[in-house]
Fold:
Amino acid sequence: MNSPATKTVCLREVAHARSGEKGNSSMISVIAYEPQDYGLLCEQVTVDAVRKVFGPITRGSIARYEVPRIGALNFVLDEVLEGGRSRTLAFEESGKALSSLMLMLPVRVPAGYVERKDRPATEEGPRSRPSGDAAKPAGTIRLAAATAWSRDRFEPALSLVRDEAIDYLCFESMSEVTMSAAQVALNDGHATPPYDPYLLDRLRPVLAECKQRGIRIISNQGWLDPHAAAQAVQELAGELGIADLRVAAVSGGILTDRIAGLGLRFSENGQAIADLEDGIVSAEAYLGCEGIVQALQQGADVVITTRVADAALYLGPLAHEFGWDTGDSQQMARGMVVGHLMECGAQLAGGYFADPGYKNVPDLAHVGNPIADVSPERIVLRKQRGSGGLLSPATCKEQLLYEVHDPGAYIGPDCTTDFGAVSFTQIAPDTVEVHIAEGAGFPKPDTLKALVGVREGYMTEEMVIFAGPGAHQRAQLTESILRQRLASAGLQAQEMRFDYIGVNAVHREATPPSAHAPYEVVLRVAIKTSTRQQAELLRKEVDPLAVNGLYGTGKWATTASGSRVRSVIGLNSCLVPRTLVDWSVSFAEKAVHTTQETP
Structure:
């Protein structure tokens, strides 16, 4: 019971949160709005309290890490994503919506505590865009984030090139599942390049201006074949009349053909990788920054890489410009902090941050991308001038802990970094200085993380729509009908899942009960099977509901032709001795364009 001097509120009134995922685990950071409330978090947001909220969907352990310098806690929930993003049947596959469930956790506060929703908003309004280049301090290297993933917005890149006096334009293009998806597309005979299909579309508007202004481009859009990607960029340069562009490819780390013979085991379950040799479709190690550094030293204007640690796209240019020894863990940690903050692009500048009434972000439709000014003495972050969004210590704190296990030991291929040594100061509107305490870096590990993709069958999904009185009951009866029909059809599903979108689809079995009947419900059914033919049975039973089901049944995309069945590529990780992973730098050949005279 509450004492007269306290009251109970949702955690949302005291802290903000962000969640993400790695494999089958979700990382959820909880950050106090006010420094004085950090002790409240430490006392009440315990592992036991979190398990009460997430217990129905968390099959593994829950770990808590304290980050007092920024007033935050970081939780790692193992086995919460039903196998991980590459194989789960869950409607919300990424774990990114789990932070909203965390914020429902009840906490006790003083009776006079002013809740966040009752406090005045403090957002800053949008600014007009000035003309001309932004002044850059002497001795500073300016890096800009053009993208955060392969399907990010296109327009920030050109604005960054023209308006911000940058030295490096960085395109991050990967997620955990990227390489495996590309490998499957190639194996299944899809007419897709072995590199990011948006590579040329992204570079075409900026390539000539970057060369003219001396801006160097760093990108991991090379995916499975960075040399082919580099050659495509060189061809583009020829088309654009850029005669002297040097395009480098950083290759290596592809272990698909030999991973089963290295005697390794999966980190998640200890199984020998060799046991699944016949099903392996991809295996890639995360490379560090060394290839990028070498390519820049050899005069590359554009560097296209295979899978590297995301932060390496920023660490590499800094190590090159400042002459850092890649074996110096303190210098590497400094670059890792910059890279980790910048790698998710607009997330640092107010994207994926807004929570109306709690975290207000102005002009989010035109959110700007972040820029880092780095010198040997100082790190300053800001966003594109005149853009929407918000860059503040709060946005930096969320990004610092995003998809991090132990913040005190963030392991990367170039070093291990103590993110608990990092803090932030707002020095101007949308401008934040980053502070890194001494001793934040530790030596690079002897192993490199590799992701191994294994064929695990097929999956498909269908959705049936209900609205009005009794919508939930009609959806439940339809589930019963489908279970019976699929059994009669001989479905041999490895897994089958029914979700009620609008009721429990996002937080699954951890969804709190509701006292109100929903007006609309979408019944979603997903199955995983060993064969494509088995997976096709689902649509053959759902489509006939149009004339055989309950009244008022709507159908999701009934006019869509073809199959929704897709391959399931399960991803597990392993640690590969660094000595077994090679990398190399090569340069694309100059494209020769001739004009054929018309006879």
